[in-house]
Amino acid sequence: MLTILLLMAILTIIGMGTLTVTSLENRIAGNERAAESGLNAAESCLAASAQIIQETLKNGGIPSSLIKSSATDTTKPVYPAANLESEIFGYTGYTNVPDNDTNDGMTTTANTSSGPDGSIRLGIPPTDIYLDIDHLYVKQKTGQSLAFGEGYSTGGGAAGTEVIYQVDCLATDPTVGNQSRLVGVYSCVATGESCQRRL
Known about the structure:
Number of helices: 2
Number of strands: 5
Radius of gyration: 25 Å
Helix content: 25-40%
Structural class: alpha+beta
Strand content: 15-25%
Strand order of the largest sheet: 1-2-3-4-5
Order of helices and strands: HHEEEEE
Distance between the termini: 70 Å
Low-confidence stretches: 100-119, 144-158
Shape: elongated
C-alpha cells in the first residue's frame, strides 16, 4: 500500500512537471510568434517608407491618398502632411534635425506634436507601427566622366542628386507588450525615380 502511494506521488510530480514544461514551451512559442510578427511589421514599414519617399519626390508632395483629413481619421497614416513633407524635401529647419522626442527619437502618439517630426502612424491591428523619416543630407551621384557632358551617347546631363534618409520603424503590439524596431538608411534619387536601402 505504501509502495502504491509512493508511486502515485512520484507520477503526480512527473505529471505536474510535464504540464509546467508544456505551458512554458507554449509561452515561448507565443512570444516567438509575436516577436516575428513585430519584426515583419517593422520590415514592411521600411518598405512602405521607401515608397512614400519615392512618391513624394516624384509628385512634389505627399500623395493625397496618404493624408488624413483630421487627427482622428484612421483610414490614412499621415497627419499633418506638412511636417513629413518638410522632412522629405529637407526644408530649412528639417534637415538632420533630431526629433522633438527626448528619449528615443520616436514619437509614439499620433503626430500632433509641434516641431520638426516626420513621424506617421500606420495602424495594422493589433500592431501599431510608427514611422519616422529623417532627411540627412544631399550629395551628387557619382558617374562616369562622360556622363557629365551634354550631348554624349550616354544620355548627357549630370549624374543626378542623391538624397540620404534615415528611416526609423517601431512596431508595437499592446496586447502582448512586444516592440520591434528597425532603422534603415535609404539613398533616393532626387527626382523620385528610385530609393535603395543602404544600411
